[in-house]
Amino acid sequence: MDERDVVITGTGLLTPLGSGCDLNWQRVRAQQTGLSSGSSEDLPAYMQCWGRINEAPMPPDLPPKLIGQVKFLNRSAVYGFLAAHEAVADAVFPLEQVPPGRRALYIASGDYTKVGYEFMSPAVKDADRDGHVDHARLNSAALDKVNPFFLLESLQNNLFSFLSASFEFMGPNTSLSSLSPWGGQSIELAARSIRQNRADIALAVGYGSWINEVPLFELDRIGILSRCRSGVRSFRPFDRRRDGFIPGEGGAALFLESYGHATRRGARILGSIRGTANYNEFVPDKGFTVAEKVSSRSMELALEDAGCSPEKLGFIIAHGSGTQKGDRSVLASFSKLLDNGRISVPVCGMKPYTGHLGAASDVGEVIFGMRAASEGIVPSTLNFSETEQDFSSLNISASEQQCRTGIFMSVSYGIGGQSSTIVVEIPAGGLGPGIGKAC
What we know:
Blueprint: E1 6-15, E2 18-19, H1 21-29, E3 36-37, E4 49-50, H2 64-67, H3 75-91, E5 103-109, H4 121-127, E6 128-129, E7 132-133, H5 135-145, H6 160-167, E8 173-177, H7 182-195, E9 201-209, H8 213-222, E10 249-258, H9 259-264, E11 271-280, H10 296-306, E12 315-318, H11 324-337, E13 346-349, H12 351-354, H13 359-374, E14 377-378, E15 395-396, E16 401-402, E17 407-413, E18 418-425
Parallel strand pairs: 5-8, 5-9, 12-13, 12-17, 13-15
Antiparallel strand pairs: 1-2, 1-10, 1-11, 3-4, 6-7, 9-10, 11-18, 14-16, 17-18
């Protein structure tokens, strides 16, 4: 590998399956799901299947200057921070060896976790005059009785300044506030900052929460939530009976560094970013719709960047949202890439384990992929039975399969026609100091 090639030396993950990469992977191997059914009189029954995180305590070693700022983090930003904290610790990297200006930070969010206006209640109550609003009193009470920092809780890039201050990642950076596939694009941007010698280390972080009322009703209005007629087993990517996804919440992070720097310090290399790509394909109609082969071009570009052919892939982690039209588009893309099944590469979907986590799923699925490839297996796709006849030649299974190579591809797409692809290779022989040359 070249000096400026990008390797992964730390990972962090917090999902409804549990806290930490090890626990998450153990439960995936056991084919467990973090999805559950809730009970609320305010929501239809099908909106009460979700992946919820019950506990997420902040680390005890948080710098004192930041302890008072935690209250300004919204729910999902806490998950993103905890994942990033784990990734930095996992890398065992002496941060003082790299100037803050050479530490890149790319964060992908895009959820709506602040629901309701309880922070305004004191002001509204004070301004109420027998059912009419006294606007002068409302203005005055808003200044006197409302926390002036309430807006911080509603920012989609709520985590950015807090995380940057925590680890002094002050080099190339941005915050991407949208839905999938921005988690994949955060990885691409982080890797590019190292490749282009603008940074020596980088954090790519994705976080999200789609289990609150606002996103639930928005997703339902778009028509992409499952009706959950079979409870949590209703999330069945690629299956011919699929009817949408079940949402969740979580955070995921990768610690990246240059190959040269990692080998000189004797770092444990978990994988290398062999190729990245993103591509937009707009559909010229009046509604939200997915392009016929939304992921084809980004996969082709990522493999070209990796110098790798489809035959060399051990498996593909597909976006797998479980919607009829979305999955059909992805399956058509894979069918094209794999020559209608004549190239035998297993395809799997990971979201039924955690729920759809938005940008966090994009990053988390790369972590799951590295764990799977290092153990020589292809993860099972929960709840899968059979797909449509058009795609029956594709290798999708509800059981684990053997992985032929240490290279895998993770693919994500979004409603607007965006698609992002990451090609990752694990070290020859599993997790170790070197990277093979399978491509």
